Amino acid sequence: MSSVLRASEMIAVGADLVVGIDLGGTKIAGAVVDASGTVGTIQSHPTPAAQGSSAVLDAVAALIRDLTTPLRRDGFRQILGIGIGTAGVVDSHRGRIVSATSAMPGWAGTEVAGGLRTRLDSLFHEELPIHVQNDVDAHATGESWVGAAADVKSALVVAVGTGVGGSIVIDGSVLRGSRHVAGEIGHLPTAGVGELVCSCGRPGHLEALGSGPALHRRYLALGGMTGCADAREVVARASQGDSTALRAVEDSASAVGRAAAAVVTVLDPETVVLTGSLALSGRLWWGAMESALRRELIDPLGGIPVIPAMLGNAAAVIGAARGAWDLVEGRRQ
Ligand SMILES: [Zn+2]
Question: 207 C-alpha vs ligand 1 centroid, how far in Å?
Answer without folding.
Answer: 7
